[in-house]
Amino acid sequence: MLEARDIVVAFGSFRAVDGASLSIGKGEIIGLIGPNGAGKSTFFNCLAGDRQPASGTIMLRGHDVTRATPEEHARLGLARSWQVPAVFDDLSVLENVMVGAFLRHPRTADAVAAAEKVIDFTGLRPIAAARSGSLGTPARKRLEIARALATEPEILLLDEALAGLTPTEVRAAIELVRRIHARGITLVIVEHVMEVILSLANRAVVFHQGKVIAQGAPKDVVQDPGVIEAYLGRSLNRKARA
Ligand SMILES: Nc1ncnc2c1ncn2[C@@H]1O[C@H](COP(=O)(O)OP(=O)(O)O)[C@@H](O)[C@H]1O
Ligand SMILES: [Mg+2]
Question: Can the keyword ATP-binding be found in this entry's annotation (predicted)?
Fold first, then answer.
C-alpha cells in the first residue's frame, strides 16, 4: 500500500530523517513510536507530500509519489492529521469537514451530505455548528481526524492524535480508531502511550535518530533492550539538562 525507501531529510547538516524505510500493508495498524525529535513527524510529512525528501523513494498504491503534492497524495487515498491541529478557526466544524469532502465531491450539496456523514461517524454532531476556533484540544484533534476521513482515504496517518487527552478521551479516541480501521482503512499512528500501541497496533515501528531501529509485534518491541535504551537515553539526558 505504502512503501518508503531510504528516506533522508536534512535541515542544514542535521539529518532529521536519516535513511528510514517502512513498508505498510493494506489493513495494518502500525504504531510509530520513538523519543521526541526522532524524526517521526518529518517522516510523516514526506509520506503525505508535505515535504520532499532529499533522497529516497515513496510508492503509494503503485505510484511513485516521492515528489507529489499533498493533493496528489490525497487523490490517491492518503490522508493525515497534524501533530498541532491545523483547522480553519473561522469556519464551523461542519465547514472544516467539508474542506476534506470537496476533494471527492466538487458540488457543495454533495460535499455537505458527505461531511454530515463523517460528522455523525466521528461523534461531532453536538458541535457541528460551532466555530472551530472556539474548540478545545480534544475536539480539534477529533475534527482533524474527521476532515482527513472526509477525503475518503485508504490510508490514514495520525500524528499524536491522542496526545493531551484525558484517559476517558483516550478511550473514546481508541474506539474511534478501531471503527476507522473496521471500515477497511489502513492506519499509521504516532503515539507515546504504550498502552495505546499495545491495544491497537498489529506492528510497532521504532524511530530513533531518523532511522527505524526496531519493528515487530508491539509486545516484543516494547521489551527490546535497544528500544528501551533509545527512550531512557533521551529521558535521562533531559533530566540532566533540566
Ligand atoms: N523545519 C525544521 N527546521 C529545522 N529543524 C527541524 C524542522 N522540523 C523538525 N526539525 C528537527 O528535526 C528533528 C526531528 O523532528 P520531528 O520530526 O518533529 O521529530 P518527532 O516528531 O519524532 O518528535 C528535531 O530535532 C527537530 O528539531
Ligand atoms: Mg512529532
Answer: yes
Pocket of ligand 1, beta carbon within 6 A = 11, 16, 34, 36-42
- What are the structural domain ranges in the chain? 2-89+155-241
**Centre of ligand 2 from the C-alpha of residue 174, in Å:** 19
Per-residue pLDDT of 68-91, as tens digits, reads 999 999 999 999 988 776 789 999
| In the predicted structure, residue 235 carries a pLDDT above the cut 70 | no
Helix (H, G, I), strand (E, B) or coil at 232: helix
Task: Measure the CA–CA gap between 48 and 81, rounded to whole angstroms.
Answer: 10
* Residue in 140, 205, 152, 160 with CA at minimum distance from that of residue 180: 152
Phi, psi of 14 (to 5 degrees): -90, 125
Backbone angles phi, psi at 201, to 5 degrees: -80, 145
Three-state secondary structure call for residue 169:
helix
Helices 137-149 and 93-101, axial angle in degrees (round to 10): 30
CA of residue 27 to ligand 1 center, whole Å: 29
Residue 18 sits at φ, ψ, to 5 deg, of: -130, 60
Q: Going by C-beta distance under 8 Å and a sequence separation of 6 or more, which residues neighbour residue 50?
A: 44, 70, 80
What's domain 2-89+155-241's superfamily in CATH?
P-loop containing nucleotide triphosphate hydrolases (3.40.50.300)
Q: For residue 136, which amino acid is it?
A: G
Q: Which residue's entry shows cell 499533498?
A: 70
